Amino acid sequence: MTEPLVMPVAQDAFETLAQARHSVRAFLPRPVPLALLERLLAAARLAPSGANLQPGRFWAVEGAVRERLSAALCQAWRDQVPEAEDYGYFPRPMPLALRKRQVAAAQALYGALGVARGDGAGRATQFERNYRFFDAPVALIVTIDRGFGAGGFMDLGMCLHGLMLAAQSQGLASCAIGALASYPQVVRDALDLPASEAVVCGMALGWEDAGAPVNRTRTEREALERYFTVLR
């Protein structure tokens, strides 16, 4: 009999990994070896996709390129000049039930930082850190070809979650950065990307600074009965 290619996974191994993963916004200045990053991306690409089309591309930005991109994004954020996004991230208008979740997530983040609700400057300073990838050693831009429909975004989302879990399994932490989708043309101009690449998000990846207050942020998940129904 042919031996299995991999050993069976412990019953709770995935659940433990999934529960350990959380959005990290402060990292240690410890580099991530390129070979390790490539392994993580290869593992993430094992995610299923319709017709095995494997949508999405990952662009790692370093050195002068990263500095140029972050400077352009921070300036766009400070100027508050709206830009046409490549896709709609949030529902418009935002239903009240979802707005409550959004507010709760913000309260968890700024509460961990000790930033008061009325402290607009403090909140703006923290939000701008999105555009510096939270000073993580790895800064990724995620794009998708404009020709893909909604199914391509679904497939790419599974790949992104796979990447974050693969990172977690190696002791690394991550944070997806949807704020980059607000300035897609700024990203394309800074990186000289083709117009055919729609900007989906960014991602910060590296070793967690466990002592940073911001990394104590936790958000709640909906109760099972709110999103799971058995029909007979």
From TrEMBL:
Keyword Membrane: no
Domain Nitroreductase residues, every copy: 19-207
UniProt-listed InterPro entries: Nitroreductase, Nitroreductase-like, Nitroreductase/BluB
GO molecular function: oxidoreductase activity
Signal peptide: none
UniProt keyword Transmembrane, yes or no: no
Keywords assigned: Flavoprotein, FMN, Oxidoreductase
Matches recorded under PANTHER family: IODOTYROSINE DEIODINASE 1 (PTHR23026:SF90), NADPH NITROREDUCTASE (PTHR23026)
Protein name as annotated: Nitroreductase
Species lineage: Bacteria, Pseudomonadati, Pseudomonadota, Betaproteobacteria, Burkholderiales
